[in-house]
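Box 3.1 A note on notation
Throughout this textbook, protein chains are presented in two layers. The first layer is the amino acid sequence; the second is a token string describing backbone geometry. Keep the layers aligned when reading.
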Amino acid sequence: MANAKFNAKVNAEEFTAEYRRAAGWGLRLATEHVLAVSNQRVPHDEGVLERSGAAVVDEADLRGIVSYDTPYSVVQHENLDYNHKPGRTAKFLELAVREEAEVVKLMIAKQLRQVLK
């Protein structure tokens, strides 16, 4: 059996900072992805609701937020009785978050793996 020895010096603070930056970037990519998927389903008449969509990342807390900002965003999202154009639906954001959860994890993990290379 072969033996291998090596010395490695790791600056924990630098590594942690780089890891957090990578996690933040992965989270930013992931929230933009969820917004794009949600926008494909958001009820659409004139496009105001779709254009109000935003993906924001709080890098300090590593928290991603996807939201829509019109007076009727919540009603359109929650009301299952509204009729929508084909491919458009209520629960547009909730469905995107649920269905893309694995993709979101992979997007963040890919950025974190870059730090370990």
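Residues 12-39 form the longest helix (28 residues). The helical segments are 12-39, 48-51, 73-78, 92-99, 101-116.
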